Amino acid sequence: MSSNQKIKLQALRIPPGWTIDWNTFYEVDPEEGKEAFFEGSSLLQMSNAQLKKIIDLEWRPESDLNGCYQLRVINFIENYNPRTHQYDRDTDWEAPHLTFSTRSRLKLVQKLEELFISLPPTLDERIRSKRG
Protein backbone atom coordinates (compact mmCIF):
# COMPACT_ATOMS: atom_id res chain seq x y z
CA MET A 1 0.00 0.00 0.00
CA SER A 2 1.40 3.38 -0.92
CA SER A 3 1.87 5.98 1.79
CA ASN A 4 -0.79 8.29 0.28
CA GLN A 5 -3.55 5.67 0.63
CA LYS A 6 -5.52 6.12 3.83
CA ILE A 7 -7.06 3.18 5.61
CA LYS A 8 -10.76 3.91 6.01
CA LEU A 9 -13.20 3.01 8.71
CA GLN A 10 -15.27 -0.01 7.72
CA ALA A 11 -18.36 1.09 5.79
CA LEU A 12 -21.63 -0.09 7.34
CA ARG A 13 -25.25 0.41 6.29
CA ILE A 14 -26.69 1.68 9.55
CA PRO A 15 -30.42 2.40 9.72
CA PRO A 16 -31.86 5.29 11.77
CA GLY A 17 -31.98 4.80 15.52
CA TRP A 18 -28.43 3.54 16.00
CA THR A 19 -25.77 5.72 17.63
CA ILE A 20 -22.08 5.06 17.18
CA ASP A 21 -20.56 5.40 20.63
CA TRP A 22 -17.04 4.26 19.67
CA ASN A 23 -15.51 3.27 16.33
CA THR A 24 -12.02 2.00 15.49
CA PHE A 25 -13.27 -0.75 13.14
CA TYR A 26 -11.22 -0.29 9.96
CA GLU A 27 -11.24 -1.89 6.51
CA VAL A 28 -8.24 -3.97 7.55
CA ASP A 29 -7.83 -7.72 7.66
CA PRO A 30 -5.46 -9.28 10.20
CA GLU A 31 -2.00 -9.45 8.68
CA GLU A 32 1.53 -8.83 9.84
CA GLY A 33 2.19 -5.18 10.49
CA LYS A 34 -1.50 -4.41 11.15
CA GLU A 35 -1.61 -5.46 14.82
CA ALA A 36 -2.39 -1.90 15.98
CA PHE A 37 -5.82 -2.13 14.28
CA PHE A 38 -6.75 -5.09 16.52
CA GLU A 39 -6.05 -3.73 19.98
CA GLY A 40 -8.12 -1.93 22.58
CA SER A 41 -11.07 -3.11 24.59
CA SER A 42 -13.62 -2.33 21.85
CA LEU A 43 -13.31 -1.81 18.13
CA LEU A 44 -16.93 -0.71 17.73
CA GLN A 45 -19.71 0.06 20.15
CA MET A 46 -23.17 1.12 19.06
CA SER A 47 -26.42 1.62 20.90
CA ASN A 48 -30.08 1.92 20.09
CA ALA A 49 -32.13 3.71 22.76
CA GLN A 50 -35.46 2.60 21.29
CA LEU A 51 -34.49 -1.09 21.18
CA LYS A 52 -32.47 -0.81 24.39
CA LYS A 53 -29.56 -2.71 22.85
CA ILE A 54 -25.80 -2.24 22.72
CA ILE A 55 -23.64 -3.89 20.05
CA ASP A 56 -20.05 -4.34 21.18
CA LEU A 57 -17.27 -5.59 18.91
CA GLU A 58 -13.85 -6.72 20.11
CA TRP A 59 -10.87 -8.56 18.68
CA ARG A 60 -9.66 -11.27 21.05
CA PRO A 61 -6.94 -11.80 22.07
CA GLU A 62 -5.96 -8.17 21.56
CA SER A 63 -3.24 -7.57 18.94
CA ASP A 64 -3.01 -11.32 18.22
CA LEU A 65 -3.44 -11.80 14.47
CA ASN A 66 -4.56 -15.39 15.13
CA GLY A 67 -7.54 -14.13 17.16
CA CYS A 68 -11.06 -13.38 15.98
CA TYR A 69 -13.79 -10.79 16.08
CA GLN A 70 -16.14 -11.23 19.02
CA LEU A 71 -19.51 -9.55 18.82
CA ARG A 72 -21.94 -9.24 21.71
CA VAL A 73 -25.42 -7.77 21.80
CA ILE A 74 -26.24 -6.51 25.27
CA ASN A 75 -29.70 -5.66 26.62
CA PHE A 76 -30.19 -2.67 28.86
CA ILE A 77 -32.94 -0.92 30.75
CA GLU A 78 -32.94 2.69 31.83
CA ASN A 79 -33.24 3.92 35.38
CA TYR A 80 -33.98 7.54 36.19
CA ASN A 81 -31.29 9.11 38.35
CA PRO A 82 -32.91 11.90 40.40
CA ARG A 83 -29.50 13.27 41.36
CA THR A 84 -28.38 13.88 37.77
CA HIS A 85 -31.89 14.18 36.26
CA GLN A 86 -30.84 11.75 33.54
CA TYR A 87 -31.44 8.12 32.68
CA ASP A 88 -28.65 5.66 33.45
CA ARG A 89 -28.26 2.40 31.56
CA ASP A 90 -28.52 -0.78 33.57
CA THR A 91 -26.68 -3.32 31.38
CA ASP A 92 -26.32 -7.07 31.71
CA TRP A 93 -22.86 -7.80 30.23
CA GLU A 94 -22.78 -11.24 31.87
CA ALA A 95 -25.85 -12.49 29.96
CA PRO A 96 -25.62 -11.19 26.38
CA HIS A 97 -28.68 -11.36 24.14
CA LEU A 98 -26.47 -12.76 21.36
CA THR A 99 -22.82 -13.60 20.71
CA PHE A 100 -21.07 -14.15 17.39
CA SER A 101 -17.41 -14.88 16.53
CA THR A 102 -15.63 -14.91 13.19
CA ARG A 103 -12.24 -14.22 11.66
CA SER A 104 -13.86 -12.80 8.52
CA ARG A 105 -14.37 -9.04 8.45
CA LEU A 106 -16.86 -9.39 5.58
CA LYS A 107 -18.94 -12.03 7.42
CA LEU A 108 -18.92 -9.72 10.42
CA VAL A 109 -20.17 -6.78 8.35
CA GLN A 110 -22.97 -8.97 6.98
CA LYS A 111 -23.93 -10.06 10.52
CA LEU A 112 -23.89 -6.48 11.84
CA GLU A 113 -26.11 -5.25 9.02
CA GLU A 114 -28.56 -8.11 9.64
CA LEU A 115 -28.66 -7.31 13.36
CA PHE A 116 -29.31 -3.61 12.79
CA ILE A 117 -32.69 -4.44 11.24
CA SER A 118 -33.66 -7.67 13.02
CA LEU A 119 -32.98 -7.16 16.73
CA PRO A 120 -36.12 -7.12 18.89
CA PRO A 121 -36.51 -4.50 21.62
CA THR A 122 -35.43 -5.37 25.15
CA LEU A 123 -38.45 -6.07 27.31
CA ASP A 124 -38.40 -4.20 30.60
CA GLU A 125 -39.77 -6.65 33.18
CA ARG A 126 -40.75 -3.73 35.42
CA ILE A 127 -43.41 -2.72 32.88
CA ARG A 128 -44.69 -6.28 32.42
CA SER A 129 -45.05 -6.81 36.20
CA LYS A 130 -47.13 -3.61 36.55
CA ARG A 131 -49.57 -4.78 33.86
CA GLY A 132 -50.05 -8.25 35.32
Write up this protein.
The protein has 132 residues and is an alpha+beta fold. Helices cover 16% and strands 33% of the residues. It is built from two helices and six strands, in the order ββββββαα.
What is this structure's SSE topology?
Blueprint lengths: L18 E5 L20 E5 L4 E8 L7 E14 L4 E6 L6 E5 L2 H14 L6 H7 L1
Antiparallel strand pairs: 1-2, 2-3, 3-4, 4-5, 4-6
Concise synopsis of the structure shown:
This protein is 16% helix and 33% strand. The chain contains two helices and six strands; from the N terminus they run ββββββαα.
First and last CA, distance:
62 Å
User: How many domains comprise the coordinates?
Assistant: 1
- In N-to-C order, the SSE pattern is EEEEEEHH
Q: Mean pLDDT, as a whole number? A: 90
**Largest β-sheet summary:** 6 strands, antiparallel
Approximately how much beta-strand content do the residues carry? 25-35%
Radius of gyration: 17 Å
- Oligomerization state: single chain
Shape: elongated
Q: Helical amount among residues, as a percent range?
A: 10-25%
Identify the notable features of this structure and list them briefly:
132 residues; elongated; alpha+beta; 6-stranded antiparallel sheet; 16% helix
